[in-house]
Every structure is written in structure tokens, then in C-alpha cells.
């Protein structure tokens, strides 16, 4: 690897999609500037020893190195012979690769899902119920004088959110950065983010819905029923203080994390939060936006392209020849638990490591093709393992940032393989083989 310095590289780790990373490649080592610890870890994968470099097929329970053609043939055979395959298009790859997966799922009459199904799926569903009063992060930087983190600890999950988008950046109307902003954190835990906030609403776990309802009641000039104090663990006077801070803000930015959509109430919590924002905007002389803190770099991308191509953000079932969507039935955890799929393709995600044990167990029992860059539970459970290319490092493409802004990324090095240029290329080669087999049959 020759010596070079590249600036403005996009980080492919969390939904922040930081686009200001500097990379120095020298003697097979890599020095990274501006990235957080999580980002730096991923950049080191380019030169890591454990990178998956060879196509492999499992024979008698052990992986055997094979040619690219043989691995691709076997992968295509698994998918073409399946009556109902699950194609899991993970968020650690480009929209371009995910799009091929969606088309392949439609062609095969399978199910196509992505990480939102096990993270912000309820947020997507809440948005379908109530609409999304939102803005880009750029608007929040320039205008927001109140930041609310609800059910999230960005200092751990998106370490640069506060410095790039949330708290410290100096904007047109927020020239003094942190000094022009207040922060409220709503979280049952006393996290680092909560400690750094002006007000910590330490609610009881699973009482988000009741708290949101109470805030809406106060906003409408009424006093909530006193029992809400017992349910949420928050005094009504503190809720009133929070509402006062919201009404005093010129522009508020609410950032919801998985704590909001994954606690009891699920998508109804999000629906209620969206209604609160609409109410603030409509009748109270302030302006608010709301957005989700997306954990993985391109988890928002799948929701975007699946929606504009097929009308639904995740859990798309093509069994009837057109897309159906019914989370709880057509979502991957439920399909695996019910043993409703008979083969799987997993791209750019550790699905085995992130689904409940019974679903993960079944996933490892059915024929599985995996495209990944490094060993882990999912590659270990696969029958065919295809080496992954690292998006934003080794090929170009598109991610959608946490605020649904598309970010085009360019590589700073080439694909280390002569058999594939990118995960999109791998998916296209695989789809061509699947079509060949199907048309022969
Ligand atoms: S905050 Fe996210 S996108 Fe930014 S450097 Fe860290 S991991 Fe990468």
C-alpha cells in the first residue's frame, strides 16, 4: 500500500455519516483524524489481519476456500432453489447494493428486510401514523436553541452528534454554540448525555407514552391527572418546567433514540412525540423539528429506497408478486421465529448476533449466504461466505445520513479483490446467476 493522505472521507459506521475524516495510509498502516473511536475501529479494518479475503463454502461443517465462481454458483443455487428466501440488506453497505437486493427479492418472491426491523422500525411506523415535522441537521445547527435527547445517549452511540449537529456547533443564529443552547435529556438512566444536560428527566422505564401525553396536556393548558407522577416518576412541576423550556425556545430539536421507540408503547410513543411537535408548531409561537438518531451508517438509506421503490420502509414481502408490509408477520425476526423462510442472504449485518436466540438458531439451520468483511456470528453460521468490500473506503456509493440527506461517498483505496469491485457488483453478479438458474429450470 503506497503512502498517501486523503481528506473529507465519509465514515461508514453510524448514522452521523461524518464527511470530514482524514486518512493517512502508510506501510500497511492507517492513521485516522477527526473520527471517533467507533469510526477509527472501522477504518482499521482496511488493514486488519482478520479481514475475510477468500470466498468460502462450508463442507462437513468446516469452511473450505473455493474459487469466486464456485462460491457464487453455490450462493445462486441456494437462493434459486428456495421457495421463500429472506434477503437481509444490512445497513453497512450502500443504497446501490441494497437496491439490487430489493429487486432480487421481488424476482424471487422472497422477503426483503433491513436493520430498521430490529431498531427504528417503530419510529418508521409512528411516522406513518402521524407524519414527520422535521428538518435537516443543518437547520438545527443554525437555529436550534433547545436540544432534547429522548431515549438516547449520543455520547456513546453517535459520539460526534453533540459536536457536529446537536450542542456545540456555531450556527447563524447560534453563534456562541453551547452558550446559545439548552439541553434536556429524557432517559431512565443517568447517562453521560444526561449529566451534560441542563435538565434530566429521569422517567421510569416504559413510561414514555404517559409522559408525552402529560406534556401535551400541559401544553394545552390543563393539569394532567396526578397518577401520572406515580407512573412516570416525574413530578408534574418538573413536567411544567420542561414545557416552559420548550415554549421559551425559538427553535427546538428533538432527537429520539431507540429508548423512545423500543419501550412499551413502541410506535405509539413516536406517534405521540410527533403529535407533541405538531402541537408546539401549530399553536404556541415556537418552532420544533424531530428526527431519529440512526445507529448504523445507512440504516436510513434502506428505508428511503425501499419506500420510493415499493412503498414500504422495511419488512417487504413479495410472496404475492407485489410488495406487502405487515411488521410482526413479514419482519425478519418473526419470519425466522415462525420458520416461515427456507433460505437467507445476509449482506453487511450481523443478523445472528442481533436477533433473539430462537430466530438466530433457525437462521443458522437454513442454507445461508453471507457477504461480510470480518468474522463474526453471522459469517460463522453461513454456508457460503463471500468477502465484502468496505463502502466509502474501497468503492463509491450513497448513504442516507440520520436526517435522510443522501451522502455520496468516494473511496480512498481500491477493492482488494479482483473478482468484485463493490458489494453492489457482488449483488449484481449473484442476481445474474440466480436469473440464469431460474430461467433454465
Ligand atoms: S460519529 Fe459516527 S459517523 Fe462520525 S466518526 Fe463516529 S462513528 Fe463515524
Per DSSP, the total helix count is 19
CATH topology of the largest domain: Rossmann fold
Structural class: alpha/beta
- Radius of gyration using CA atoms only: 23 Å
Number of strands: 19
Percent range for helical residues?
25-40%
CATH class of the largest domain: Alpha Beta
Q: Give the biggest sheet.
A: 9 strands, mixed
Level-2 CATH architecture of the largest domain? 3-Layer(aba) Sandwich
What spatial form do the alpha-carbon principal axes imply? globular
Cα-to-Cα separation, first versus last residue: 46 Å
Give the oligomeric state of the chains in this entry, treating copies of one chain as homo and distinct chains as hetero: single chain
Uncertain runs: none
Query: How many structural domains can be distinguished in the coordinates?
Result: 3
What is the topology, as strand order, of the major beta sheet? 5-4-17-16-15-6-7-13-14
Give the DSSP E fraction (strand runs of 2 or more residues).
15-25%
Question: What does the average pLDDT come to?
Answer: 95
Bound molecules: iron/sulfur cluster
